């Protein structure tokens, strides 16, 4: 039982428990036993913080079903190892070297020092942001739905936004709030900070603390911080501009809105493909160009250490830096005057190849099971599932049972990670002392 197998089986166990809970009669509004596929799909989508749903969560599930979805999304966002380790710390037990290694792999950290403190910081950060989101959303929901329902709506949407899950209790998701500055910026703020990574948030906190304490020492940010923040900022700006001009004349999305609302919707649509899944427009009525831009942003995803999925921003930067090095005739990959180790370059290539292979395989299988669907719809759904986004053109509930099972597997692979899953299947790699002769090969 390797660490990677422990993590992968842990997620399966949580999904199984969630499926059982969502199948219970008290989890549905009808008071009857839930369908197995619906329960399994919803549980997987929640644990994998995806947000895809084959039913309307707001009307299909009772309060208890909605509560289970929120709890599963919270566990999935924190991660199986983070959640279990925090529970161990709560009961006062010390965790051994094996658990420290698991935390290192789950959070993709360079070392094992301070694992307990990191877990406490992650949980505290999560609670602070989610509680802040709840209070900010109350003025938007309470006047219309009353205190009881309004508070629950604020809690549910804050948890899902921070964990990049994307489940909504409204039939039209957040389309009804596309002009609400408060809702749009609260949800997008939670999405961005939830997906940018805990390490970035902690470094930002230390930097702001030093400024307030007027410490003269200059703050040196880590390479993770620089890459995650700059890449996220660039993608958000480019996405907003791209969606604004591509959908500008589309009467089904942006065309009928005022100029300020167009900017607001374009901003939201640029943020939500970063594995969040909320939407303020009808995704199925977007132009083909808009759908392809969304697919590209979904595939890139969030940053490592956050609650989002996808290929990750750091992987993108390493690969683009490799391309830049080749074009400039350099033999070293550099990022912010730092050399990227060869094993990280190989890992980035492995993530890209594994991600592309998963998307291609799932797309082909669904095209075979549901041949009546358009290619762009299938590709969009698969990328949304793999990158744990949750956006859909509206076909999720109507696909066949086989297609739903394929999407379930795709969501799981996207959440645990392609390389981690392969390591769990094949076992940990064994180092080799054999070095083979080098030879040239025609490439490109």
Key descriptive features of the protein:
444 residues, mainly alpha, 17 helices, 2 strands
Q: What would you say this structure looks like, in words?
A:
This protein has 444 residues and is an all-alpha fold. The chain has helices spanning 3-23, 36-47, 57-60, 63-78, 80-90, 97-107, 115-162, 181-196, 198-212, 223-246, 259-271, 288-300, 313-327, 342-369, 375-386, 401-416, 418-426, and strands at residues 334-335, 338-339. It has one domain (3-425). A hairpin with a 2-residue loop joins strand 1 (334-335) and strand 2. Helix 1 runs antiparallel to helix 4 and helix 8 crosses helix 9 (198-212). The radius of gyration is 22 Å and the shape is globular.
As laid out across the biggest beta sheet, the strand order is: 1-2
Which sheet architecture does the biggest sheet show? 2 strands, antiparallel
Name the average pLDDT. 88
Bin the strand percentage. Answer: under 5%
Terminal-residue CA separation: 41 Å
* Rg computed from alpha carbons, rounded to a whole number of angstroms: 22 Å
Oligomer: single chain
Task: Spell out the helices and strands N to C.
Answer: HHHHHHHHHHHHHEEHHHH
What is the molecular shape?
A: globular
SS summary, helix count: 17
Helix content: 55-70%
Helix-and-strand structural type: mainly alpha
Low-confidence parts: none
Strand runs, count: 2
| Count of all domains | 1
């Amino acid at each position: 039982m390797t660490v990677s197998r422990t993590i992968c089986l842990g997620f399966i166990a949580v999904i199984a428990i969630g499926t059982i809970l969502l199948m219970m009669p008290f989890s549905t509004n009808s008071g009857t036993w839930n369908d197995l596929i619906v329960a399994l799909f919803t549980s997987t989508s929640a644990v994998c913080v995806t947000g895809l749903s084959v039913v309307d969560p707001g009307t299909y599930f009772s309060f208890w079903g909605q509560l289970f979805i929120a709890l599963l999304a919270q566990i999935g966002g924190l991660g199986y190892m983070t959640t279990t380790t925090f529970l161990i710390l709560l009961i006062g037990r010390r965790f051994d070297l094996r658990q420290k290694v698991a935390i290192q792999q789950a959070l993709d950290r360079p070392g094992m020092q301070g694992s307990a403190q990191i877990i406490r910081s992650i949980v505290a950060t999560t609670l602070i942001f989610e509680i802040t989101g709840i209070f900010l959303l109350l003025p938007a929901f309470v006047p219309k739905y009353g205190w009881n329902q309004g508070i629950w709506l604020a809690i549910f949407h804050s948890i899902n936004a921070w964990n990049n899950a994307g489940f909504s209790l409204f039939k039209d998701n957040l389309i009804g709030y596309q002009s609400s500055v408060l809702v749009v910026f609260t949800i997008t703020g939670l999405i961005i900070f939830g997906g940018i990574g805990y390490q970035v948030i902690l470094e930002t906190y230390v930097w702001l603390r030093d400024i307030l304490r007027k410490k003269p020492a200059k703050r040196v940010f880590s390479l993770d911080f620089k890459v995650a923040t700059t890449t996220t900022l660039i993608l958000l700006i480019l996405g907003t501009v791209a969606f604004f001009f591509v959908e500008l004349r589309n009467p089904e999305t942006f065309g009928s809105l005022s100029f300020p609302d167009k900017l607001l919707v374009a901003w939201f649509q640029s943020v939500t493909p970063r594995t969040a899944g909320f939407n303020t427009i009808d995704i199925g009525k977007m132009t083909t160009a808009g759908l392809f831009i969304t697919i590209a942003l979904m595939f890139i995803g969030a940053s490592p250490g956050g609650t989002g999925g996808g290929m990750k921003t750091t992987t993108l930067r390493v690969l683009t830096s490799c391309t830049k090095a080749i074009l400039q005739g350099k033999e070293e990959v550099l990022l912010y005057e730092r050399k990227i180790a060869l094993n990280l370059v190989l890992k980035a290539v492995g993530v890209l190849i594994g991600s592309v292979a998963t998307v291609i395989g799932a797309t082909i299988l669904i095209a075979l099971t549901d041949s009546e669907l358009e290619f762009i719809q299938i590709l969009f759904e698969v990328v949304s599932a793999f990158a744990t986004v949750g956006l859909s053109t509206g076909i999720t509930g109507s696909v066949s049972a086989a297609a739903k099972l394929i999407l379930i597997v795709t969501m799981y692979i996207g959440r645990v990670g392609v390389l981690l899953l392969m390591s769990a299947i094949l076992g940990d790699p064994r180092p080799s002392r054999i070095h083979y002769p080098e030879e040239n090969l025609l490439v490109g």
